Amino acid sequence: MDLSEASLRELRDALRSRRVSARELARFYLDRVAAHNPALNAFITITEAEALAAATAADGRLAAGEEGALLGIPMAHKDIFCTEGVRTTCASRMLEQFIAPYNATVVERLRAAGMVMLGKLNMDEFAMGSSNETSHFGAVRNPWDLQRVPGGSSGGSAAAVAARLVPAATGTDTGGSIRQPAALCGVTGIKPTYGRVSRYGMIAFASSLDQGGPLAKTAEDCALLLEAMAGHDPRDATSHPEAAGTFAATLDAPLKGLRVGVPEEFFGAGLDPEVAAAVEAGIRILAAQGAVIKPIHLSNNAHAVSTYYVLAPAEASSNLARFDGVRYTYRAAGVEDLTDLYQRSRYEGFGAEVRRRILIGTYVLSAGYYDAYYLKAQQVRSLIREDFRQAFAEVDVIVGPTTPTAAFALGDKAQDPVAMYLADIYTIAVNLAGIPAMSIPCGFTAGGLPIGMQLMGNYFTDGLLLNVAHRFQQETDWHRQRPALASAKG
Amino acid sequence: MEWEVVIGLEVHAQLNTASKIFCGCSTAFGAAPNTQTCPVCLALPGALPVLNAAAVDKAIALGLAVNAQINKRSVFARKNYFYPDLPKGYQISQYELPIVGKGTLTIALPDGREKLVGITRAHLEEDAGKSLHEAFSGQTGIDLNRAGTPLLEIVSEPDMRSPAEAVAYLKKLHALVRYLDVCDGNMQEGSFRCDANVSLRRPGAPFGTRAEVKNLNSFRFLEKAIEYEMERQQDILESGGKIVQETRLFDANKGETRSMRSKEEANDYRYFPDPDLLPLVFDEARIGAVRAALPELPDAKRDRFMQQYGLPAYDAGVLTASRAVADYYETVAVGVDAKMAANWVMGDLLGALNKAGLEMEGCPVAAEKLRILLQRIGDQTISGKIAKDIFELIFAEGGEVDAIIDSRGLRQITDSGAIAGLIDEIIAANPQQVADYRGGKDKLLAFFVGQVMKASKGKANPDQVNASLREKLKAGSQ
Amino acid sequence: MAFDAEAVIRTAHLARISLPAAEVAAVAEQLERIMEMVEALRNVPTEGVGSMAHPLDLEQPLRPDIAQNSDRREALMQNAPAARDGLFLVPKVIE
């Protein structure tokens, strides 16, 4: 059995039947991390000792007869989730030394399920970016081409899963930060319905848009992970009372009669023809399984990026005000007075992109501009949600490309924020509406780069999306492809 | 031409919940620094607020008590500014949609008239921590125990026209929050704080530019600060100057206000709805439950005291000014002459408390004891004079009324034979005064009463002494 | 133009981020480009459209009023850049 290719279900069976111990499994993946992370930079922190201890504990639970879908399985968290006793940096100099005194709810839930954390994954600083180049700890490389970006902001998560350094990872998605890197790295990731996964202990970027979710090799693995992650959390006032769900049981439901909407706006100018062709081919595979394909319109999607770059920075400018150099963050040396402490700690502690978004957010909320920008964007947000509402009156899922292009080269867009923002043109509307969406591998470019297909669903149809994705993955093997690097011995 | 002062007050009442407004930390006062904190109120990354139900209900109670509109849908907003005792870099407050809308409060003016003061709104928000500037040289220490304590900010209309009116309003509101048990009202510890917006105008003219005076933590400071502002603004206006709209700090030591420039520069608060908190929505049933649990409020209680106890408006007002005094009075007045009980509570008791610097909460004489004492006057066991001595004794040293009467032999002498004997002795011992009295010096009666009471060690029934003396002195003159 | 140097400096001060003078022009240019993209919103007809603050049409959940947190000061202050006697320290604040 190739442990690096095994599904979570196969790993569970292997653990249960004692063909492998949790400790051996952790050791196996830690060795892969040691071998490949130097080239990828997917991890910010590797917690080998804690991982082996947790694996030993999991072996104890297994020996005691405990059964759990995830018990003893290794994983890693995006470094945006607070982990008690292990530093949580959000890929920022601001939190470079921050040791959280508590666990995020997601961390707590997966720990309780018996998963073994191997470390904390690299990301764009404070999840602000689409290329993972804004990390204070350096860019993450795309395992398919080390000169290309893995996407962002959950770039470390996607790269680690793609390179088989972990069988599963957590990510967060504010404007595409799970789906876009999943697409660019050829893995499967789901952004759940807003309110499914607790945000407690997940460092906030834009509170009304952020949602945690899993990245893994397959939809089936994501379903098992999401079952463990989702659930109502009384510590998060935006956690939905019916957040919990079972997703694995319905994975095999047939797609016959499934109404699939294809938004024309997602196939216009700016979409790379290779991506378009792969996604169209993917849609035909759904049709071949009995799905009914319907063209639809999401006419306000054109305004999604503009709307997002008012609302997300506005919330971020306020959410990031707590990083002030007073209680736990980076503090500039030799400050003269309080204002100097604030201003230099925040200049030195935040990177350029984070500062840029804080300034945009501060500006759009400031006196005289609130109505013109913030309130206007909230109204357009209503229109975007309304588009989806109308679409879901006619179709069950919406399918389109996750990204306009496959992975771009490192440095390509780093100097042009607007070009970078447009990399999320197909993913942002979903966050504005709060609906679930996922990205699944659907092909490769001629140059060998993965292409992702996006599935979007109505509120709380996360299970349906996973079902569609799983059926798709039964008919295709794009998700089984692995980068050459991952195949190398080690 | 005269200037008219226009005053509006913003009162911050700390709600006396057990836990903070958005987390499960204790709100108890006086703990060691930062020991009542958690990831939420320290604003650690990823921590999220969850609203305290009791804070909501206490806000509703205050709203009902001032006949205000209760907004069944209100929204929490973030007020963004940087200050070291504000951990998140924003204060969670309510901006466009507060929980309590327009209401009114009736205040009694010094001349006895009543005035209706408008309440603009009252909204829920969180308190900041404390900055300790004196603890270390060159450094300020930050204690966040108070951060996240629930506050209700109660904003009045600019309806007050004198420092006395402002004080009357603040006192009334102070009594009200304590009646409702929504705030402990401790002004020294900062549980009940007041800012005043003060401006001058010619009567009938539009409102003038106002100054906001902060840090008014006593009724006296409020009065002094407004008086100071009136003088300051008058001087400026009459010398042709203009009032600057600004925040000023009251310096209690100097009795003056001074500009707080530091607060001025950052007044672009960038309010927006807090995305971590959904709209606060509740139904009529929640309001109904709070209403059902409301205690009798001061105005209603005053009216009832006048009706039920036959008290004059003044007495009823004094006795109902605080819930503790009213409760005390009602315990005393059971089976006792109501007016006598009122006189005792208002005079002897409140006087003694005042002299000892005590609040009703720390009163050393339980209401039940005062009631027994007054009953002993009523049933003629002791005289009023003896009662006052016993009261002072119990106030100072404690003890039981009946035990003191018995052990000290203070029981009143009502036996007419015994009283007659005492009178005879006094008459015999003072022939000159007897003659003078009989010669028309009526005022000497008091002398004889005094002598008899003294001879009885104060125990003779004064009414009987009085009547019997008149009789005997009169009889002898014939 | 929304973002001139003056607007950048004012906004940076509100956000308490110092910007070296040499960076102001470049930052202004980038912010201006972003705001140009955002300006497109002005042309979207939104008359009578409600504002959407949140994706969930839910109400605020309420927490029972129970003081249940224990003293964890040591753990909570372990990351403090400057602290003494249980207090966070900052340069003297002048009011």
Task: Give the topology, please.
The complex is a heterotrimer of chains A (490), B (478) and C (95).
Chain A: H1 8-16, H2 22-40, E1 43-46, H3 48-63, E2 74-78, H4 105-112, E3 116-121, H5 155-162, E4 168-173, H6 179-185, E5 188-191, E6 211-216, H7 219-229, E7 259-263, H8 273-288, E8 292-296, H9 304-319, H10 338-349, H11 352-365, H12 370-394, E9 397-401, H13 417-421, H14 428-433, E10 437-444, E11 450-457, H15 462-475, H16 484-487
Parallel strand pairs in A: 2-3, 7-8, 7-9
Antiparallel strand pairs in A: 1-3, 4-6, 5-6, 5-10, 9-11, 10-11
Helix pairs in contact in A: 2-3, 5-6, 7-15, 9-11, 9-12
Chain B: E1 4-14, E2 51-52, H1 53-65, E3 73-74, E4 76-80, E5 90-94, E6 103-108, E7 114-126, E8 130-136, E9 139-143, E10 150-156, H2 163-179, E11 192-201, E12 211-216, H3 219-238, E13 246-251, E14 256-259, H4 261-264, E15 272-273, E16 280-281, H5 284-292, H6 298-309, H7 313-319, H8 323-332, H9 338-356, H10 367-378, H11 384-397, H12 401-407, H13 416-429, H14 431-438, H15 444-455, H16 462-477
Parallel strand pairs in B: 12-13
Antiparallel strand pairs in B: 1-10, 1-11, 3-16, 4-5, 4-15, 6-7, 7-10, 8-9, 11-12, 13-14
Chain C: H1 5-14, H2 21-39, E1 62-63, H3 73-76, E2 83-84, E3 87-91
Antiparallel strand pairs in C: 2-3
Helix pairs in contact in C: 1-2
Describe it.
- The complex is a heterotrimer of chains A (490), B (478) and C (95).
- With 490 residues, chain A is an alpha/beta fold.
- Chain A has a domain at 8-257 and 477-487: Amidase signature (AS) enzymes.
- In chain A, 39% of the residues lie in helices and 13% in strands.
- Chain A contains 16 helices and eleven strands.
- In chain A, strand 2 (74-78), helix 4 (105-112) and strand 3 form a beta-alpha-beta unit.
- The model of chain A has no long low-confidence stretch (mean pLDDT 97).
- Chain B has 478 residues and is an alpha+beta fold.
- Chain B has helices spanning 53-65, 163-179, 219-238, 261-264, 284-292, 298-309, 313-319, 323-332, 338-356, 367-378, 384-397, 401-407, 416-429, 431-438, 444-455, 462-477; strands at residues 4-14, 51-52, 73-74, 76-80, 90-94, 103-108, 114-126, 130-136, 139-143, 150-156, 192-201, 211-216, 246-251, 256-259, 272-273, 280-281.
- In chain B, strand 6 (103-108) and strand 7 form a beta hairpin.
- Chain B is elongated, with a radius of gyration of 30 Å.
- Helix content of chain C is 35%, strand content 9%.
- Chain C is built from three helices and three strands.
- In chain C, helix 1 crosses helix 2 (21-39).
- The longest helix of chain C has 19 residues, at 21-39.
- The chains are: A alpha/beta (490), B alpha+beta (478), C alpha+beta (95).
- Chains in contact: A-B, A-C, B-C.
- At the A-C interface, helix 9, helix 10, helix 11, helix 12 and helix 13 of A face helix 1, helix 2 and strand 3 of C.
- Strand 2 of chain B pairs parallel with strand 1 (62-63) of chain C, so a sheet runs across the interface.
